[in-house]
Amino acid sequence: MLIAVTAFSTGLWHQNYFDLPLWHGHEMVFAYAVALIAGFLLTSVRNWTGLPTPSGGSLLLLLLLWLAPRLLSPFSLLPPMLFAAIDLLFLPVLAIVLARLIWQTKQRRNYPIPLLLLLLACCNGGVHLQIAGIFEIGQQSMQAAVTLVIALIVVIAGRIIPFFMQGGIGIRPAPNPLIEQLALPSVLMFAVALISNHAWLIISASLLATIIHLIRLTGWCDRAVLQEPMLWVLHTGYAWLVAGFLLYGITTWLQLPTVLAIHAWTVGAIGMFTLGMLARVALGHTGRKIEALPWVPSAFILTFAAAACRVFLPMIAPAYIDIALMLSALFWSTAFLIIAFRYSAILLLARADGKEG
Asked: Is 171:165 a contact under the CB 8 Å cutoff?
């Protein structure tokens, strides 16, 4: 984030495999978001299935598959097609690893997860096809990738938010069966509408998704959530998800750029949800009590401020968009520095309860 905002503000950029705007978007989705998704799924599928996920050398190989394209993209060391092949490896390998475990335990409700990872890999392939000059589908592929990350959040949120509410405030909201059945399909319908590139289909699909996910979020709301930062960060992230669908429909209707809606998802929904999950899972899976460490709520608030600056400030005062970008990047980066400081010792030391991990 700091490299991107510096390059945007100064115009200085070392031309590599990606140009600057594409590098920023690609790495925020396929580096940042995918890394957090992978960490969560490798941890959770182990709990869901009772079977071991990669550890030790096999986990290191997965890490290297993710890391190699990040290190290689600034340099012209490899032919473009070879670099693209390396960049495309991680998601299919992760999908196969998880699919094998889910299939062995016949967990039908988790079958969509490997499929969503493979679809994400296809989106990454679309970006590389545009760079290679084969198909002009880079922008559509990036927007579809963001939508698929949102789809994963929708699936995961439905599992964990009610469960975390029960553990945190003693309240487990009753599910709305119809809304739960429509939650994922509504996002996939929106993705299909995007591919169609038909304005009224996009507006209709975004409005439908807004209604469905607003009803879902309302069912999770309780005043007691406001007293628990480890809960309200997830609820607020989901609220940004709803706002993204609403903004996408409005901007499409008004024939305005949809970049603000995209950033409601990326900075707001993905940023807050992944940061909240990182803060929570790091405690739970190191044998510690689930509670907000000092300064961590400030990191959550800063992430919200980063999203608000990136989405709403350009609406209110378009002339100050450069200031909005700088503030958003500053708030985002500060939030992650706080988390890095608070959690470094926790993640580098052994579990507090002496168990493996």
From this structure: yes
Q: By residue range, what is the domain housing residue 239?
A: 150-352
Which amino acid, residue 220?
W
Dig out the tokens for 148 from the structure. 């698929």
CA distance 127 to 27: 12
Q: What is the distance between the alpha carbons of residues 34 and 32, in angstroms, rounded to a whole number?
A: 6
What's the token pair of residue 238?
């989901």
Residue 177 has φ and ψ, to the nearest 5°, of: -55, -40
Regarding pTM above 0.70, the answer is: yes
Contacts with 96 (C-beta within 8 Å, 6 or more apart), sequence order: 114
131 plus 166 within the same structural domain: no
**Separation of alpha carbons 126 and 120, rounded Å:** 10
Instruction: Give 241-282 pLDDT, tens digit per residue.
Output: 999 999 999 999 998 889 999 999 999 999 999 999 999 988
- Which of 82, 114, 136 is the C-terminal boundary of a domain? 136
Q: Are 154 and 184 in contact (CB under 8 A)?
A: yes
Report d(CA 350, CA 352) in Å as an integer.
6
Considering the domain architecture, whether residues 60 and 119 belong to the same structural domain is answered as: yes
